[in-house]
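Record 1 of the preview.
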Amino acid sequence: MQIAKVRGTVVGTQKDPSLRGVKLLLLQLVDEEGNVLPTYEVAADIVGAGVDEWVLVTRGSAARQVLGNEQRPLDAAVVAIIDTINVENRLIYSKKDQYR
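->
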């Protein structure tokens, strides 16, 4: 899994039928120090994340499985909204502090 920040949504009116009703998010990856990286990714959202929230992303077969047994053409899925991140007793991110 990887940490990412939600930057926006991706909307496609024509898509694979198995993706109907699946919200797609544009994510910017984050490193272990909390710095956003110049790398972006699109992922299916199964947890209801919003813009500017930090999330956990899973990839590959794990991403396809979280949406059920149906085979879907997914490479990545948001599986959690992050509340806090601590690294070596340092607070890297706190959702609570972000909105103050």
